[in-house]
Design goal:
Layout: E1 7-16, E2 25-27, E3 32-33, E4 35-40, E5 44-49, E6 52-56, E7 61-64, E8 67-68, E9 72-78, E10 82-89, E11 98-99, H1 107-121, H2 126-143, H3 149-165, H4 173-180, H5 184-195, H6 199-217, H7 222-228, H8 234-245, H9 249-258
Antiparallel strand pairs: 1-10, 2-9, 3-8, 4-7, 4-10, 5-6, 5-9, 7-11
Helix pairs in contact: 1-2, 3-4, 3-5, 6-8
Length: 260
């Protein structure tokens, strides 16, 4: 994938929900397309694009290159949700479509969600903000290869424990480091290199990403979502949600509904 390019514009940012395409197989039209970067939040499918089969799972990022399309088929095993950023660049980024392995970096889903929120709000300078966020997304994708597997294994016990317990108990820095048999300073350094954030921020990101999914379901009130996401104080939840996503939970619900 070309790394020395300039984003020249964003055509659209769309949220595709679980009910958007109820059929098992969707065949898209044969036409010229722009570059697409798609983050999958849930679901499982196989995308057949110009001779390549791309297995899509939660946490994967799919890239589709601009140009003529002679095959674009999505075969769904489990319906899911994703955010699709369609953009142009000053040169060919890649001639081939590709997909990443499932990414644990919790910064990426938040960046995609924030870009979508800003796009649908269409406030002053929203296109520039979205381009800025797209650059950040690309930077995070390239960071994925910077932590060797041997180093990731050193923090894997902490990552697994956080993922399984971030709602059920208070997590201490010392306890996480002890699980890995390393100092907290070293754990924090490896966390930042792998996820772009320290363990404490990683825990917050898991809670806020869960809250976004619950709000999009439209099944719960903001106070219920706060409680289900591990917050005792709705005001603290709202403040942290806005700090992380850029808008309040109530605004998030309104923008989500208006984008449907």
């Amino acid at each position: 994938m070309e790394k020395d390019f300039v984003i020249t514009g964003i055509k659209r940012i769309v949220y595709v929900g679980e009910e958007e395409y109820p059929e098992k197989v969707t065949r898209f039209g044969m036409s010229a397309v722009q570059n697409e970067l798609i983050f999958t939040f849930s679901g499982q499918n196989t995308v057949y694009f110009n001779g390549k089969a791309l297995k899509t799972l939660p946490g994967t990022v799919r890239f589709l290159p601009e140009g003529r399309v002679y095959e674009y088929v999505v075969d769904r095993e489990v319906n899911g949700a994703c955010i699709d950023i369609v953009f142009t660049a000053d040169r060919v980024i890649s001639k081939d479509a590709f997909i990443t392995s499932p990414i644990l970096n919790q910064k990426l889903p938040a960046l995609f969600k924030k870009a979508f929120s800003i796009w649908v709000a269409k406030g002053e300078g929203y296109r520039f903000e979205c381009i800025s966020l797209l650059y950040k997304i690309l930077a995070e994708l390239w960071k994925e290869s910077y932590l060797p597997d041997a180093d990731f294994k050193k923090i894997e016990p902490a990552v697994t424990y956080i993922n399984e317990n971030f709602l059920s108990e208070k997590l201490s820095a010392e306890g996480l480091a002890k699980r890995c048999g390393i100092s907290y300073a070293y754990l924090k350094r490896l966390f930042i290199r792998r996820f772009g954030m320290p363990p404490k921020r990683y825990v917050i990101s898991l809670k806020i990403n869960l809250a976004c999914d619950l709000l999009r379901s439209e099944m719960y009130s903001v106070s219920q979502v706060a409680e289900m996401s591990g917050y005792d104080d709705i005001y603290f939840f709202s403040r942290q949600f806005k700090e992380y996503i850029g808008i309040s939970p109530t605004e998030f619900i309104k923008k989500f509904k208006s984008s449907k």
